Each structure stands twice: as structure tokens, then as C-alpha cells.
Amino acid sequence: MASSMAMDILHFTQQYSLYSNSFTFIIGTIGNLLNILVFTTLKLFRNNQCVLYVVTESIANIFQLTTFALIFILTAIYQTDPATSSLFWCKFRGMMVTLCTLISFSTIVFSASHQYLSTSPLFYLRQLSTIKLTKFLICTSVIISLLHNIPFGIFTEIRSSVCDVFNQNMLNYLSYFYYPVLSGLLPVLIASVFSFLAYNNVRRIVRRQVPIVRRKLDQQLTAMILIRIIVFIVLTVPYDIQRMYTFIAKVNQSNLLYFAVNNLIGAVLITLFNLNYAAPFYVFVITSARFRRQVKHVLVKKCWGRCKRWFLHSINKVHPIVDTESPACSVALE
């Protein structure tokens, strides 16, 4: 009876994971592509350090969502997990997930710290926030993440048709440092502190002689990053707790019903966790009226306008499209 129930739970978990991850992949890919489009199109955001972090995060998020989608789609196609028979896929998927997680989380931390530096009342702190430092930190993050992946490639293996890490030292590292600290508490704490400090700086920025365009941009980005950090905390902490418990309690298939229930809980939490990679664009749209106007401006005035011009040109109609947008509106948006 317990075995039959466990198999039903495992089957439901598999179906739930397939559909939830497919949905997350679709909305996340669209959202991240729109993030990249908006932040790289508007002149207002060009050469802004915080925006460069957000664009880098969006690129890492697309790779992460694609990896997650492949994991569940391939399992659905072959009716079994290819990682249990292909050592390459077993190692590659784990390394990709870890790589994209570290890059994405590090850019979240960097964007929060940048907002603190760029809005600081202290001139020497504002001087530290440069595009050169931003590019250096992003490159360093990628290199360190790649080096960090080497042990995952070495110690991930297949035993008894299970793709996992079996080395005890590596398991201890995952249980007591990677999940609770490196991909959990550490980025959450650092991002939270810098976001709070940046928010306080922005509240006092009116007292400084700052151009109104720069002031509005700082206020917009700080508010967007602050809400992003809050969502990041809410979605990350429960999953990290569950992963730590799974490793520390050594949950395995010896008790099938317990294993199935833990898998179901983990599937729900990982769905929420994966929203970290899908939600940024939608968080920005919901929380910032100015960003909504900027998205509309890019999609309607720029993208749709270019499509119309291309279409008219392709059918050899010489009817110039007059841009009715006022210069003042363009300046406000860009």
C-alpha cells in the first residue's frame, strides 16, 4: 500500500515538474529577453553599471532556464532520466546549474552593492562605482564560478542508476557550505544589507545637487533592485533549507514513501526557486510605473515602428512613418 502510494506521488511529482518547469521556461525566457531588449535599447540605461549587472543576470537566467527545461523535457521524452545512463549529461547538467546559479546570484549582489556606492553621499565611494570595475567583477565572477565547477565535474557520477555526488567530503561541502552559505545565506545577507543602505541613500539624495534625470534614474533602479532582492529572499530561503535537510538527513530510496514525499516538497520549492530566474522582468514591470512606460516605448515606438518601416519598404511603398512622439517624452523615457 505504502509502495503504491509512493509510486503515485513520484509520478505526480514528475508530471508537476515537467509542466511547471515548461511554464517557467516560457515566461522566464520571454521576460529575460525583454529585459535585455529594454536595457540595451534605451540611451538612458547605456553605460550604467547596475544595468550591465541586470543584463548579465538575464543572460545567465536564460541558460539556467534552458538547462532546467531540458532536464525535464528529456526525461518526459525518454520516459527515464538520461542522466542515469549518460555520464556526460549527468555531469554537464549539474555543472551548468551550479555555474548559472553562482553567476546570477553574484550579479544580484553586485547590483545591490553598486546602487549603494552610486547613491552614497560620500564622493570617494561614488568614485568606486565605475564601468571598468563592473566589467572586472563580472569577468571575475564568471571565472571563479567556472573554477568552482571543477569539483562538481569530478565527483558527480552514476551509481546504481542514480546521478549524484557520492564523495563524502563533497557531500559535506554541499550540505554545510554551498547550499546554506554560498547559494543561500551569503548572497541573501549581502544583497539585503546593500539594498537597505542604498534605499536610505536615495531618500537623502534630494539634498545633494544631482541632475534630476540622474536622480530619477537612481531612485528607479534602487526601488527595482530593492523589490528584486525581497523576491530573491522569499524564493531562495525555503529551497535552501529543504536542500540542506535532504543532504543532512541523507534522504534516499530505502524508505520509498518518505523519499517520495520529500521529492514532492522539493519539486514545489524548486519551482518557486526557479522563479528567481524567470521573475525579474515581471517584478520590475509590476513595481515601477516608469519601467512600464519604458517597456511600452521600446516595444511600440521602436520595435513596432521598425517592423512597420521594414514592411513598408519590402512592399516598395514610399510612405515615410512620421514619429509623433514629442522630444520631451523621448527624453523622459530615454
TrEMBL record:
It is found in: Membrane. It is a multi-pass membrane protein. InterPro entries: GPCR_Rhodpsn_7TM. The chain crosses the membrane at residues 20-39, 51-74, 94-112, 133-156, 176-200, 221-239, 259-286. Gene3D superfamilies: Rhodopsin 7-helix transmembrane proteins (1.20.1070.10). GO terms for molecular function: G protein-coupled receptor activity. Residues 31-284 form the G-protein coupled receptors family 1 profile domain. One of its GO terms (cellular component) is plasma membrane. Keywords: G-protein coupled receptor, Membrane, Receptor, Transducer, Transmembrane, Transmembrane helix. PROSITE patterns: G_PROTEIN_RECEP_F1_2. It comes from the Eukaryota. This is G-protein coupled receptors family 1 profile domain-containing protein. It comes from Adineta steineri.
